[in-house]
Design a protein that fits this description.
By secondary structure, this protein is of the alpha+beta class. The chain is built from ten helices and ten strands. It has a four-stranded antiparallel β-sheet with strand order 1-4-6-2, covered by helices on one side. A two-stranded antiparallel ribbon has the order 3-5. Pathway: Cofactor biosynthesis; NAD(+) biosynthesis; nicotinate D-ribonucleotide from nicotinate: step 1/1. GO terms for molecular function: nicotinate phosphoribosyltransferase activity; transferase activity.
């Protein structure tokens, strides 16, 4: 287990990169973490040194291993950990009115400069009941880190493990693309799934935001709406297609497509499979080929 970070002194957060999701703040925790914080402070125990281990009890999906993920986001979180005046005011409102003013003054000083994190490397294969991450520091502060660390690690490890299982089944040679954004658990679930699928072994994502944030290769198909937007090849105006090396040009690619379709239909080898080719579908594929001559693909299940 390696030491993951040493935070700088209070106020030395300039230049540090915070969590990817701006919703990951010191308030992304359970209410009882703040009530315990106050009780520690009231008892004069808040600066006592404490050690917490983060682990899990069972592998997901009934499997035999887990891929550890989410460490980077945890480090980003503690490196810029600081409650704002607005956040402190909200904590004051959420706690009983009997809480002393001195506690809220103290919250203005709280950061993670005395916190040390030791962890296995992100992306490692890990197992139940073995500590993934150890947090050392003032008990009240590290108590506040419990919930966000679990939140940042559990989902990330779940997705990365699932991706690794897909990669294992598919083998090394298959290309795996992640297209889950439209079905994900909200924007953060979508961004996180794209990141940790890539970490778990996928090759690319359809998620443009994840591509920008994390440098993940982007891939895309086209939709059924694109296919069904065409009625016939007559709609295609620009029919010319350059060869991949630019040395020649086909002036009427649409006619060339129809010519090859006729050859296939009458070859006898297709056993009539192309006898009822949908011309509007063919027009969409032809148009896509003209738009992306070096990156052609065809979504073939719009009509059948």
């Amino acid at each position: 287990m390696e030491k993951a970070t040493e935070n700088g002194p209070n106020g030395a957060h300039s230049g540090r990169v915070g969590p990817t999701n701006p919703m990951v703040t010191p308030l992304l925790t359970d209410q009882y973490q703040f009530t315990m914080f106050y009780a520690y402070w009231k008892a004069g125990k808040h600066n006592e040194r404490a050690v917490f281990d983060l682990y899990f009890r069972r592998n997901p999906f009934g499997g035999e291993y887990t891929i550890f993920a989410g460490l980077e986001e945890c480090i980003r979180f503690i490196s810029t950990f600081k409650l704002t005046e607005e956040e402190i005011a909200f904590v004051r409102e959420s706690l009983p009115p009997s809480c002393e003013d001195g506690f809220f003054n103290y919250l203005r000083e709280v950061d993670c400069s005395d916190v040390e994190v030791y962890a296995v490397s992100e992306g490692s294969v890990v197992f139940p009941k073995v500590p993934l991450l150890r947090v050392e520091g003032p008990v009240a502060v590290v108590q506040l880190l419990e919930t966000p660390f679990l939140n940042l690690i559990n989902y990330a490890s779940l997705v990365a493990t699932n991706a690794a299982r897909h990669r294992f089944v598919a083998g090394k040679e298959k290309m795996l693309l992640e297209f889950g954004l439209r079905r994900a658990q909200g924007p953060d679930g979508g961004i996180g799934a794209s990141k940790y699928c890539y970490l778990g072994g996928f090759d690319a994502t359809s998620n443009v935001a994840a591509g920008k944030l994390f440098g993940i290769p982007l891939r895309g198909t086209h939709s059924h709406a694109f296919v069904s937007s065409f009625m016939s090849p007559d709609e295609i105006v620009d029919k010319s297609l350059h060869s991949s090396d630019g040395s020649s040009i086909c002036e009427d690619f649409v006619s060339l497509v129809q010519k090859w379709l006729s050859k296939i239909q009458w070859s006898g080898s297709s056993h009539g499979a192309f006898g009822e080719t949908n011309q509007s579908e063919l027009a969409a594929f032809t148009s896509y080929a003209l738009a992306f001559p070096n990156n052609f693909l065809a979504l073939v299940d719009t009509y059948d």
